[in-house]
Amino acid sequence: xxxxxxxxxxxxxxxxxxxxxxxxxxxxxxxxxxxxxxxxxxxxxxxxxx
Length: 50
What we know:
GO terms for molecular function: protein dimerization activity. By secondary structure, the chain is an all-alpha fold. The protein has helices at about 5-25, 30-50.
């Protein structure tokens, strides 16, 4: 993965993590939106680690 793609992916991860925390605080950790964002975050992190 080139440096630019990696940086772009890191930025997406940062934004998803921030959104997940916001949802967790406002809607709860077990809310379907929080869980959905958490799964998206997992996919992004896995992509970065490949």
